[in-house]
Amino acid sequence: MSNKSITVALDAMGGDKAPKIVLQGAEIARKRYPDMKFIIYGDLSKIRPHLDKRRQLAEISTLVHTDVKVSGEEKPSNALRGPLKQSSMRLAVEAVKNGDAHCVVSAGNTGALMALSKILYRMVPGIDRPAISSFFPTLRGESVMLDLGANIQCDSDNLVQFAVMGNVFARIALGANHPTIGLLNVGTEDQKGHEELQDAHLRLSDANIPGKYVGFIEGDHIAAGKVDVVVTDGFTGNIALKTAEGTANLTTEFLKRTFRSSIFAQIGYLLAARSMRKLKHRLDPRKYNGAIFLGMNGITVKSHGGTDGFGFANAIGVAHDMVRADVIEKIKTDLAAVESF
Prior knowledge:
Layout: E1 6-11, H1 20-32, E2 36-42, H2 44-51, H3 55-59, E3 61-65, H4 88-97, E4 103-106, H5 110-121, E5 131-138, E6 141-146, H6 156-173, E7 180-184, H7 195-205, E8 212-217, H8 220-224, E9 229-231, H9 234-259, H10 263-271, H11 273-283, E10 291-294, E11 300-302, H12 309-324, H13 327-339
Parallel strand pairs: 1-2, 1-4, 2-3, 4-11, 6-9, 7-8, 7-9
Antiparallel strand pairs: 5-6, 5-10, 10-11
């Protein structure tokens, strides 16, 4: 994409602390990305008190009023019909479909956001199903993983397509010119895994895409950073992601309890305070907030519903980078190369 400004559609009513964190995030993103403009969808009576405090953000924002929102408990199918056709989420996604915005960011209901995006954008030719992808810290830096929950069951075609899309995402998000790719399995031996994994493994071994396919990887290889791109079905990927989040929270809580356990432990904390701050910064989940829905003719980024303004700004940053790098066209190009072998 050229250096023209990027317009981001914001679902201001999605998330646990909307619209406050949405406006906070937009303000932070405005400072990071001066080429950005916003169309903000939601209840103006709730949005304006936050926007009035941010004059420069208001100058680059267009407001569209609707007092209809998709709740976190709403069934995805309900978001497609009836009164929810006028929801802030629906209108934001429609803005991308109609060309009024380049991308949409929402912290709202994941299933509804996926359903709306899939119906309104349609799939990229050659991609059967969309995938949710995000990045997270490893011992080597960062890795990306997909699918994180959109598809409970996948065949080998889906897994190969996920590998292509994850490869593109890693090149953009991580700056990895030649990403390494691995299929998540119960073992690294060639004979391990079900038929779909075996078939995808053979096809990826000969695939003509940038980077290197290293074969099967196991669960402990994810945090070790053995590969840049972890490919799996949505059932396994979601469990792996939630397990990693839970383990991080457990470790943090254990550290807190340890340093509170005695006066000597508290002194030890004071001596290690600088290193602890570095660790906290490294593992801060807000830094990795923003999961992109890959495989559709439109860019949708899902923010964690419980994040704050800093985290939401990072989700906006993911959307910005995907638009600027023209992620959809890169996926089409790489997919054509794979299908030609």
